[in-house]
Write a structure and sequence with these properties.
The protein has helices at residues 2-8, 25-34, 123-138, 154-166, 172-183, and strands spanning 17-19, 46-49, 59-62, 66-70, 78-81, 85-92, 100-108, 111-119. The strands form two sheets. The chain has a five-stranded antiparallel sheet, covered by helices on one side. A three-stranded antiparallel sheet has the order 6-7-8, with helices on one face. It is an alpha+beta fold.
């Protein structure tokens, strides 16, 4: 994850983006004491400072396994594991508000819900963070097609035929014919 993060997130202080080893100590300490209280200093790979004053009190902390963010003090802190991401989209904010957001679809167990990271103060950073999260989301997915099996799973085919017969989607004659073909 560290290599992916270094490849996708630039060290760009003008956008509030900081990547190890160049993490500003004061901003990192503020983030860890304010909203990322369950993250240790050694875990942090990158920091996004969303504050206009540069204090680090709002933003995001990225580790190898998760990221923690808080848009402002009025909103709850959110912790998201990268494998829980099922959607990432960079969006422009509504007219008059300016800036950008990164809309996140997060799945935990049976619940899928949306979270939003606010990049009003540094809209250019949204594209980089969105790109990184999009890549992190699919990092461990194996896109290789399944290989053709060496043998047929006869029991599974028989179960499927029985199910089709029970649902009256397969005639008795066809059922018998298919079972005979399966046995040869």
């Amino acid at each position: 994850m560290e290599d992916l993060l270094r490849d996708r997130l630039p060290h760009a202080p003008q956008m509030g983006l900081f990547v190890t080893p160049n993490l500003p100590a004061d901003r990192l300490e503020k983030a860890l004491s304010d909203y990322a209280t369950d993250v240790t200093r050694d875990e942090v790979l990158a920091l996004y400072d969303a504050t206009l004053s540069g204090t680090g009190g709002d933003g995001a902390v990225f580790t190898a396994t998760r990221f923690v963010f808080q848009n402002n003090d009025l909103q709850s802190t959110q912790t998201v594991r990268y494998p829980d991401l099922v959607g990432v989209e960079v969006q422009r904010r509504w007219l008059g508000l300016g800036g950008k957001v990164v809309a996140l679809m997060v799945n935990r167990g049976r619940a899928t819900f949306e979270l939003t990271m606010d990049f009003s103060g540094a809209p250019k950073a949204a594209s980089y963070v969105g790109d990184f999260l999009d890549r992190a989301m699919v990092r461990d997915i194996d896109f290789a097609p399944a290989s053709e099996p060496d043998t047929t799973d006869v029991a599974a085919v028989q179960e499927a035929l029985e199910r089709l017969r029970a649902e009256r989607k397969l005639t008795a004659d066809d059922y018998e014919r298919l079972l005979e073909a399966l046995e040869t």
